[in-house]
Design goal:
Shape: globular
Largest sheet: 7 strands, mixed
CATH class: Alpha Beta
Helix content: 25-40%
Distance between the termini: 35 Å
Radius of gyration: 18 Å
Number of domains: 1
Number of strands: 7
Strand content: 15-25%
Number of helices: 10
Order of helices and strands: HHEHEHEEHEHHHEHHE
Structural class: alpha/beta
């Protein structure tokens, strides 16, 4: 990793474990399918240049490549990109870039920029987002999702983890697969508005899936849960409870 961003999280040496732990669970499956659903509602009707910033092993890149988009998959982890190259070998329209997303300006502008579940792994998430906006073409769309700090507090309150909250979620032996810098939706929304972008979509991702008392229904009633997540995910006040927050914003011009 570039020394300047050494405090940012990389998944080198644990990329396979990360993919299994995230996408091998109902949490990861539901997050991906909800994001796919909302993206399909807003995606450009014709193929465009797409930047999947911090796209890891290429799960969302594959979705976009299958739709004919020209995708640049970026990640700071060589191991994650190695998995992606193998998985996406049959998609010649996918190119790869290894390095911090804060250093992507040389890649040019894109009509669609994705940054999903990345900000919470960075030491200075809003600074990184500011850099990423330089890659967004005038009139282009930004799809941004991130671990919701407000929901993180709420979740730990209902589980009684009061000491953890009082310590501002800092523990001596932090689990590497746990996000370490959750962001408040209000902060991001204010930042994008100040940057001149128009937010056209807001949704909570997993507004109640993670809170159900009987965890077995996350599997046994998955389709019902997904349907209710879609029903309530864009409605107030439920969207603010999503463990992840998703928004789509348009850059002026174009």
């Amino acid at each position: 990793m570039h020394k300047q961003y050494s405090q940012d999280q990389s998944f080198d040496r644990i990329a396979e474990k990360f993919e299994k732990n995230i996408y091998g669970t109902t949490k990861g499956r539901l997050r991906h399918e909800l994001l796919e659903h909302y993206l399909h509602q807003h995606l450009p009707k014709t193929p465009v240049r797409v930047l999947d910033a911090g796209g890891g092993t290429g799960v969302m890149t594959q979705t976009l490549a299958e739709l004919g988009h020209q995708v640049t998959l970026n990640d700071v982890s060589e191991d994650a990109l190695a998995i992606a190259r193998q998985k996406l070998a049959n998609y010649p329209q996918v190119s790869y870039h290894c390095g911090p997303l804060q250093k992507l300006t040389e890649q040019g502008e894109f009509e669609l920029v994705l940054c999903h579940a990345v900000l919470e792994w960075l030491s200075r998430p809003l600074d990184a987002l500011d850099s990423l906006l330089q890659n967004l073409a005038p009139g282009g769309q930004l799809s941004l999702s991130f671990f919701n700090r407000d929901a993180h507090v709420f979740s730990n309150l209902i589980y009684g983890n009061f000491d953890y909250i009082d310590k501002d979620f800092v523990v001596p032996n932090r689990v590497r697969l746990n996000p370490n810098n959750a962001v408040c939706p209000s902060q991001v929304l204010d930042f994008l508005q100040a940057s001149g972008l128009q937010v056209v979509h807001k949704a909570g991702i997993r507004c109640f899936h993670d809170y159900v008392r009987d965890k077995s229904i996350q599997t046994s009633h998955y389709e019902q849960i997904k349907a209710k997540e879609l029903e309530y995910g864009t409605r107030h006040p439920y969207l603010w409870l999503g463990r992840y927050f998703h928004l789509i914003a348009i850059k002026p011009g174009g």
